[in-house]
Amino acid sequence: MTSEHDITLARTTDALAIAELSRDAIEYGLTWRWTVRRVMRCIHDADTNVVVMRRGGTGVPAFAIMQYGEQEAHVSLLAVHPGHRRQGLASALLTWLEATARVAGCTAIHLEVRITNPGAMAFYRRHGFGETGVSVGYYEGVEDAVRMVKPLSVSADAA
Q1: Which residues contact 15 (CB under 8 A, 6 or more apart)?
Q2: Alpha helix ranges (H) inside the chain
Q3: Phi, psi dihedrals of residue 143, rounded to the nearest 5°
Q4: What is the mean pLDDT of each run of 10 residues along the chain (159 residues)?
Q5: What is the model's pLDDT at position 2?
Q6: SS3 state at 18
């Protein structure tokens, strides 16, 4: 990770780039649900972190959205633009999300992955996530999701 990569909370001006990357990299073949309006709601939601990876202060080559409950967090989306993959951006975002969840007192992070995306499942396994089951028809009734979870130890800062 070099200094040219910065993880920051998303601004409202990032909503279009986030929504488009979600549509193209995550929601392909499905109805576009993570629209600009929905991303904007998440940006303004106190129980949600929308974070972006910036390169040289401009552009959004990667982003993540994570929602917080009382004791658990849920990664709703994590995407890297195809031209920026294999550069550690997703790992950096996931590390940031995990650290933030620990500080928030969360004991686990949950997520779902399209069953047809073995690369994403392998990525999350490398980061300590385990499979907990399959949600049949999770994606609009046309595709199953693999549910994954990573137990967290709570940071001393949160105690």
Answers
A1: 36, 39, 40, 43
A2: 15-21, 36-44, 89-103, 118-126
A3: -145, 140
A4: 70 94 89 93 96 77 93 95 84 94 95 94 96 92 93 65
A5: 41
A6: helix
If residue 76 lies in a helix (H) or strand (E), which one and from where to where? Answer: strand 72-80
Query: What is the DSSP-derived secondary structure letter of residue 10?
Result: P
Tell me which long-range contacts 135-138 makes (C-beta under 8 A, separation of at least 24): 138/112
**Residue 115 in contact with residue 144, Cβ under 8 Å?**
yes
**pLDDT for res 1:** 40
Q: How many CB atoms lie within 10 A of CB 136?
A: 10
Does this model's pTM top 0.70?
yes
Residues 6+ away with beta carbon under 8 Å from 70:
none
pLDDT of residue 42: 97
Do the bridges between strand 58-68 and strand 72-80 make them parallel or antiparallel, or are there none, so unpaired?
antiparallel
β-pairing, 108-114 vs 72-80, is parallel
Q: What phi and psi, each to the nearest 5 degrees, are found at residue 155?
A: -65, 145
- Classified by CATH at the fold level, domain 5-151 comes out as Aminopeptidase (3.40.630)
Question: Token match 């990525």: residue?
Answer: 123
Other CB atoms within a 10 A radius of the CB of residue 22 amount to 23
- Is residue 113 within 8 Å of residue 145, measured between CB atoms? yes
Give pLDDT, residue 102.
Answer: 94
